[in-house]
Amino acid sequence: MTEPSHEVADLGLAAAGVRRVDWAERSMPVLRSVRERFAAERPLEGLRIAACLHVTAETANLLRALRAGGARVWLAASNPLSTQDDTAAALVAEYGISVHAWAGMDPATYDRNLLRVLEPRPHLLLDDGCDLVHAVHALRPELLEDVIGGCEQTTTGVIRLRRMSAEGELRLPMVAVNDTATKRMFDNRYGTGQSTVDGILRATNAMLAGRTVVVAGFGYCGRGLAERLRGMGARVVVTEVDPVKALDAAMQGYTVATMADAAPVGDVFVTATGNRDVVRGEHLARMKDGAILVNSGHFDLEIDLAALDAAAVSVHRGVREHADEYVLADGRRLLLLCEGRLVNLGAAEGHPAAVMDMSFAVQALTTEWLARSRAGLAPGVIEVPAELDSEVARLELAALGVGIDTLTPDQEAYLRSWHP
């Protein structure tokens, strides 16, 4: 096999990366079954795919499925801190994927690598945060004539896509993979909940039981995070701007407060909103000594880092791995994790493979659907066909050995009729 184009930290890490990818695959039976079918049917034959995704072992198994289906794939990282360098090396050396990513790259290199994976004039885009879609629209619009469509798998990315579409700027069909029932329930709720707590513990070794943790945002990610934290004995305070979500949190027994009121009592603050400046200067000014600042949203905008820098008289970098201490004028110390970037992939390994199995199976099947539906799709944000989500759920139930009931003919007739 000819070695694909690449810029990675060290190809010598490939063997370790293969072991990591193989370990993840053990917990990804649904995606494995999709890959086996793809290998037999080759539904993506001849297609070029550009991807901006977290470079992890779970992502590697998604890309293996796409390669098995006949596609050629170019991958850039969707976060400068989340790349597993051994996985990146394995993707190049063992799986024939072109990778331009390494851990700790600077923002300028991150942007350059987005353009590198667009150079082959891709037919399909797989995005995580809408950065790749933004790059092709803003910097390489001439490539849009070749693009069939793409998938977006984050809440933040879907928000950006819907704004582009509302303003008439989105010039290709993009499927909101993030908005499927399986993705929201398992990836956003259970995956984010567990992996965010994992990242906090790895970065701080802090005791969460008995401490007050403020969760900003009570969407699927925030809800899962609040559940996991309460299960570990933390007192959870929820902040929200949506009255329905705030009411939901209150009815579930959480304390609901404004960020201004939560700031003096919180020991740990975790943002999971998809918005910016959720924790601002006026909140930092009221926090107690030793408060920990954590972001679990896609971009490093949820904590106002400029305000934090301005308030600090000194910064101690690397007081622990993935943790920087900001000393304020009055002597208070605030601990920022992962430079305000996504903590579950910056300080930990992201979602468990079993969770990503379903999310990436939906993404693989949606990519196949896009390839087959190319002629009939208009620019805009498109929902994943319900039958694909149901298929993934059925495959996962089968892998778990779980059986469910089926409707009888009489029940089906009843549901189709308005007669009693």
UniProtKB/TrEMBL annotation:
PROSITE patterns, per the entry: ADOHCYASE_2
EC number: 3.13.2.1
Cofactor binding comment, as recorded: Binds 1 NAD(+) per subunit.
A Pfam family the protein falls into: AdoHcyase_NAD
SUPFAM superfamilies: Formate/glycerate dehydrogenase catalytic domain-like (SSF52283), NAD(P)-binding Rossmann-fold domains (SSF51735)
Subcellular location: Cytoplasm
Binding-site residues, substrate: 56, 128, 183, 187
Catalytic activity reported: S-adenosyl-L-homocysteine + H2O = L-homocysteine + adenosine
A GO CC term attached to the entry: cytosol
Keywords, in A-Z order: Cytoplasm, Hydrolase, NAD, One-carbon metabolism
Domain S-adenosyl-L-homocysteine hydrolase NAD binding: 188-350
Primary site of residence: cytoplasm
Pathway the protein contributes to: Amino-acid biosynthesis; L-homocysteine biosynthesis; L-homocysteine from S-adenosyl-L-homocysteine: step 1/1
GO MF annotations, alphabetized: adenosylhomocysteinase activity
Cofactor(s) annotated in UniProt: NAD(+)
Binding site for NAD(+): 154-156, 188, 217-224, 240, 275, 296-298, 344, 351
GO BP term, pick one: one-carbon metabolic process
Known role: May play a key role in the regulation of the intracellular concentration of adenosylhomocysteine.
Similarity remark: Belongs to the adenosylhomocysteinase family.
Protein's name in the database: Adenosylhomocysteinase
Native source species: Nocardiopsis algeriensis
Gene: ahcY
